Amino acid sequence: MFWLLIVSLFAVLLARAYRNTFDLNIRRVNVAVQPSECRGESGSFKPLTVLHLSDLHMENFSIPAERIVRDFSGQHIDLIAITGDLLDRHKNIPKAVAYVETVMKLNPRLGTFVVFGNHDYVLAPPKLGQLKAELERIGCRVLVNQHVTLIHDGMPLHVIGVDNYSTGHSDLAASFRHVPTDGVRLVLTHDPNLVLEMRDYSYDYLLSGHFHGGQIHWPKPFHLVTMGQLPKLNMVKGLHHYDGRPFYISEGLGQTGLNIRLRSRPEITLHTLVPAGAPSALPTAETAAAAQMKGSAAKPHAATNPGKVATEAGRTLALE
Ligand SMILES: [Fe+2]
Asked: So which residues are the signal peptide here (predicted)?
């Protein structure tokens, strides 16, 4: 009888954990940035909206791309950022490309940008090359330790794609080579532990994924202890700061290993970057008070150093 009870409880827990993979968490994050050299006489620019997807994991996901398109249809999106771990198996390349192509129906004004994660590097080099070529064929920019400069409202926007840190593929020097000093620097990378190495590389905001919010975060995500220093600093998801600079860790859309989540949800995030000193540009209901906090090991959902103020909405939109 005792064992029957235990097995029943475990089955209920597993069922709940599987159901969680369908419970999409849509987050909105507002970040105010002040680039070192401003753009234009007013020092202002229109809010920049970035739809952030990470860790799609075509082998284990429950959120169809069509749902993302439906949830964000009518929403102005300047840029889509995909921060790695699209798949493990080359047979899923068509599936991943079709998924991204569907999301691109949201018509991001400045384009869709992709960096690779550790799971993408499970593919043999020719297959990874095939994934890259297919993504570029549908119009993505795949950034491998390189940057591209766009113009947003008259301001240079440098999208810097740093390849995956945990597999030793990141090259910061190459990624930042020839990046102009004016404008906003938006870094895309998979493993957020990269920020620990970026003291000499200036940026305004960094988007990442990798940890899946622990995925099985119950009672604690003990398994993350092998995934670098950030989990030891209690930085596994959400908005954080290191060396006074804001970066974001998405919980990701898909799962690895078992297709379950506990105390974690699949996530898609809409980041809005606005010029520092223009709080009126942020939707009031979604703006949290910012507290000054210069240096490392910052708490999530707080901020920052003078001149670089970050706020987070801290609430989930009931779009489902
Ligand atoms: Fe992942």
From this structure: none
- The answer to whether position 311 is within a domain reads no
Domain presence at residue 10:
no
Ligand 1 center to 233 CA (angstroms): 20
- Which structure tokens are listed for 2? 């005792």
Per-residue pLDDT of the chain (320 residues; tens, 9 = 90+): 788 888 888 888 888 999 999 999 999 999 998 765 544 445 688 999 999 999 999 999 999 999 999 999 999 999 999 999 999 999 999 999 999 999 999 999 999 999 999 999 999 999 999 999 999 999 999 999 999 999 999 899 999 999 999 999 999 999 999 999 889 999 999 999 999 999 999 999 999 999 999 888 777 777 788 899 999 999 999 999 999 999 999 999 999 988 999 989 999 999 999 988 765 445 433 333 232 222 333 333 223 332 233 333 322 222 21
Distance 293 CA to ligand 1 centre (A): 29
For the chain, what is the domain count?
1
The whole-model pTM stands at 0.86
CA 60 – ligand 1 centroid, Å: 10
Alpha carbon distance, N-terminus to C-terminus of the chain: 40
Domain that holds residue 90: 24-286
From ligand 1's centre to the CA of 191, what distance in Å? Answer: 9
Which two structure tokens, joined as six digits, stand for 103? 């999301």
CATH, residue 120: 3.60.21.10
CA–centroid distance, residue 96 to ligand 1 (Å): 14
CA of 125 relative to ligand 1 center, distance in Å: 19
- Measured CA distances, 149 to 37, 45, 157, 202, 290 (Å): 15, 16, 6, 15, 29
The encoded tokens of residue 255 equal: 């799962």
**Does residue 16 lie in a domain region?**
no
